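Blinded run. Sample ID left blank on purpose so nobody reads anything into the name before looking at the predicted structure. Input follows.
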Amino acid sequence: MVENQSRQALLAIDIQQDFITLNGPFKDKPVKADHIIINLTNILPHFRNFNNNIVIWIKADYSNVPTEPKYLNRPEGRQYENVPMNDAFHSSTHRTFPLCISGTDGQKFPPEIDSLIKPDQDIIITKTYYSAFTDTNLADILKNVDEVHICGLTTNVCVQATTIDAFFHGHKVFVWSDCLGCRNEVSHQNALELMGRWYATIITSDQFHLPQISANRTISKPVLYLVNGSIPSWRVMMALYEKNIDFESKRLKVMSNPKETKSAEFLAINPRGLTPTFVDKDGSIIAESLAILHYLEEYYPKTPSLLPIDKKQHIQVLQRIQESQNLVDIYEPLEDIVFKTPKHEQSLRKDSIMKTLDMIDQELAFWEMYLTKSIFIACDQFTLADCAFYPVMAYLIHRGLNIDKFSRLKNYVEMIKMKPAAINSHPDGWKEKGGRINIFKVVRNIIDNCNEENE
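Blinded prediction complete.
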């Protein structure tokens, strides 16, 4: 799915007869799998033929089940801190009734799946736990694999357990939502929400297309010209990392004299001398952060989509993207007062400061309300709206904004900052809080000093 040809593996989990046939253990409530077979039939030829990708068929065997759960050890790394691992249930196995017993027809793949398996090319792994990683050699097989794509049965049990372990084994994980099966729609949706929130990018099989790369053409990386710590540059970097687009970053200094953004070389690329500016592999140049976000979605369709297909959600995302600029526009006068107004004149701006702080609170209340309706800022999946909005919040917090009274916003920021895209795009050398100049502290001191003088 990425332009740098990272190796990928597809895990097809537990598409076995006991789960999907009417005469199986689930009797009149088997898992529906026709859609999975159709979609896999369409996508597997493309998947296999790219960059030595591998297809791994996972088969459950619950003949001699272990009695105790087996837990994965939490790996080191900031991206794994405070992220929930598999619980006792998902670290365990099936024991309640006979299911996928070795040697029975129920443990076999259905004929439609058998016809998709290439014995000379694919791998078949038998598992005894819900997670395909537990007590198997799957981790060794995936040692040189960058991306793990997951489909199969059932969404809320074995797919979820395997997805979580794949994340903690260090893989970039994609779950194919239209190649999953579950006996309960609520459980299915809850599992998708959980996986999308913490561990994986949720896509559909029709979003998975592989780049056609000419063997005799040199592929160069797109280039992003950026300023470290600027909200616009931060937005684009988040989208690039979330979409897993390989790119070269060129950091320009604006505190130097002359500014690097005003150099002849850069002005030849962007006459306005503004960042971010994105130069694509074919030489196309696009500036303005929100425009670049839309460009990436339009012209990188072979990467994870950050726009929902659902019309209502799509509209919501587009609106939130534009709204994200409101908070920036409201806040900017505070920086003008702190950085551009002589100190002896700052007290004259007290009323303006108080009005701006009140407007910021009013604007934050809107976003707090939005988060009562969805997990992420526009809907229940991470989208371009989050790429546009999160850097605004993170920047203001770095400048001293306290959002303790906005509990949903605070939880949202805590959730997003743990995503790899947020970690990778975080400005170099920046602590989360405690910027060199605490803007909000400075302006509140101005108010306090004015009040003391008037007493």
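Unblinding after everyone has recorded impressions. Confidence is low (pLDDT under 50) at residues 1-5, 209-219.
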